[in-house]
Amino acid sequence: MCMAATSALFSFSPTPLRHGSSSSVKPKRLVCVSVSTNVSASSSETASKPQIELEFLGPKPKDDGTYPVDKAMAISGEKLLRNIMQDNKIELYAAYGKVMNCGGVGNCGTCIVEIVDGKELLNERTNAENRYFKKKPESWRLACQTIVGNKENSGKVVVQRLPQWKK
Asked: What gap in Å lies between CA 26 and CA 23, rounded to an integer?
């Protein structure tokens, strides 16, 4: 018998049957088909975990002087800032970085962000960041090295995208 998380049992005859034929029927073979489902956490399970609210400021101000804002939510301590931005389709890279980035290992510097508010809700700078940002502001981080939350805290983090473009 076939065992899987979700399975279905099908049978088929290896040769087609003809209507009205009196020929003997060959034995059927059993085929097991497993179906994998990706079930997300229930809303009550997600609600019980601390949440981090994120605001992402655009790199250039609009005509009225305000910066465009994208928002996202994340469960504390579960994702990198880079992944949260990608999951929510929030622009992280400049043109060069879109095609020439390191894939999140912290050695290219194309995912630079500035933490405007909520620094205490993030992990400490990594060794990769300390090497890369020797002469840069303390508020600058690599999104690929920044863990949002610590599984216990909650609050709001404000992130400036592409701070090197800021006027």
From this structure: 9
